[in-house]
Design brief:
By secondary structure, the protein is mostly helical. The protein is built from ten helices and no strands.
């Protein structure tokens, strides 16, 4: 099945809006560049990047309603960490509304916000491409863009660290597995950039 036909692209653009759609196209571009660099399936990179935010612009209460529609049970800790719910929901939307059945792609969508321990190459690529795409601007992003093509694992570590700093600075609830992921990556002895 073709996941990127014109009707699905129109639906995606309508569902996530023009700005988020342009973000997704930027993530596609970076993901494909990283895919070439790290010998990852470029079609999977493209599909996962395109649909990674398909659950993003849904108001939070509607996200909860859609979770119920799909009979998805998320623990309270995930629900308390509101900014990551869209990623879990997005994997189900990608499957049920866009027909994506590849588990590796669905997991890349599901884990694109906080990552997880022992991420696959595709998961790392989507995670990193999302936060280094050209329209992202935060202190140190240029260093991360360069680092991504030299050491993807270290870039994932730095991304997880940046996410936790952002969450703390925004006074959001910290999803406890994010700390576990950070500590797991930190144990790999990556030097700070």
């Amino acid at each position: 099945m073709d996941y990127i036909d014109d009707n699905k692209l129109k639906k995606l653009k309508k569902d996530i809006g023009k700005e988020r759609y342009l973000h997704s196209l930027n993530v596609v571009k970076v993901a494909k560049e990283l895919g070439k660099r790290y010998n990852c399936d470029l079609k999977k990179c493209e599909i996962a990047a395109l649909y990674h935010d398909c659950g993003k612009l849904i108001p939070f209460q509607r996200q909860i309603d859609k979770l119920k529609e799909y009979n998805i049970s998320l623990d309270q800790e995930i629900l308390d960490a509101k900014p990551i719910v869209h990623a879990y929901l997005g994997a189900y939307i990608a499957k049920n509304e866009y027909g994506i059945i590849d588990t590796e792609i669905l997991n890349a969508i599901k884990y694109h916000t906080i990552g997880r321990e022992n991420m696959t190459m595709l998961e790392k690529i989507i995670f990193v491409a999302d936060f280094i795409e050209p329209n992202r601007s935060f202190e140190g992003v240029e260093k991360l863009r360069n680092l991504a093509f030299e050491n993807l694992d270290k870039t994932v570590y730095e991304g997880v660290k940046q996410n936790i700093i952002f969450i703390v600075n925004s006074d959001y609830y910290i999803y406890e597995p994010a700390i576990k992921i950070y500590n797991h990556l930190r144990s790999k002895n990556y030097e700070s950039i």
